[in-house]
Amino acid sequence: MNKIPVIIQREYLSRVKKKSFIVMTILGPLLLAALMIVPVFIARMSDSVYDVAVVDDTRLFFPEFVDANNVRFTDLNVDVDLAIELMKDGKFDAVLHIPTTAFQAPSTLRIFTEKAVNLNAKLYVENILKNEFETMKLAHAGIDPEVLRATETKISIQAIRLLRDGHEQTDYPEVSMALGIFSGILIYFFVFLFGAQVMRGVMEEKTSRIVEIIVSSVKPFQLMMGKIIGIALVGLTQFGIWVILTFALVSGIRTAMPDTFRFVPQDQIYISSARSLNPAELQEHLQQVQQHNTAVGQVMEGLSAINFEVMILAFIFYFLAGYLLYAALFAAVGSAVDNEADTQQFMLPITIPMIFAIVMAQMVMHNPSGPVAFWLSMIPFTSPIIMMVRIPFGVPLTDLWISAALLIGGFLATTWLAARIYRTGILMYGKKPSYKELWKWIKYKD
CATH for 50-151? Predict the structure, then answer.
């Protein structure tokens, strides 16, 4: 009689009833939602005003220092040493000194602080001085600065993806990159976490000699598969709860805080305004709207362009298939050794492909349709991570089907290989096996 369902039920229930599973299932979506929401609140809390006293010995530059970016400027017509003393008394956060030699020697510019300088303020000051120095040099050369300013044009190209059904869709490659690398890392995390649980579970049963009692009524292959599938269902349960709670939290916060998620896409601006505004007015209107758009709103707009049904289904498949592929190998390692210290020599060949896939994910993000991305998404040992990186950018169906077929084939091959090692290693004690001995176990006839 097939005992796999009984083993699956035991492995599943024994893990979902643990307090650690319940705690992480609740905390997981809270942490995922916090990754998107908390930075906004931290940015708001850190928006304190940075007071900079300007000692301008040339009396030429201070009028250009306009309060902005949470930086406030105060003109001090005093000696720089006295200004520094006022800063030490808590009157200012920093003192900017512009000596009379600044134009001839910009390296003589100094900003004095008692604490680490505010980088935002420093960059803002440098940008102001850079523009003024360039203006003065142009005037000295007899070139009208306004002519050059009139030629400056800010370019922001809107990416449009042409769909096969003839429709157009606004593309947000930055959001696709972030979602792709996040999905790849999540696959890596899930596969490694639950694969390691399989290995530790096998080792515990082996070292406690409980496995000797179990295999008297259950075949080793059934025991291995029951353990692998049971833990896979635990992972799917946790992931499903995370998806539901994360979407619920983000939707609730988005409804409660609409200003934080404010965003108007460019295509809507053009459609609503093109009939009534000329090109110059339309460009000005576009810039005004974009100034009121929030970064969080842009991220959410980019996420709305992603086909999450495909993403979630692909994630479930690649997690399951990738996990089954690696979990079989983890189970084989757990059956071959008696303690965790002995697992290191066998773990290295298993973990290298996953680590390699994470390292190569950055290259794949920059060219998701290139040959490197294609072949890495076909190789079963790297495809779970690399294909999840590629999917947000859009992947041809033929690539998906080939990758899925090869991954299933890889899972069947590793399961057969692991089962050959598992059936012998699960009852071997007191000996640290070598690769040569593992090969003998694989070749043993039934």
Answer: 3.40.190.10
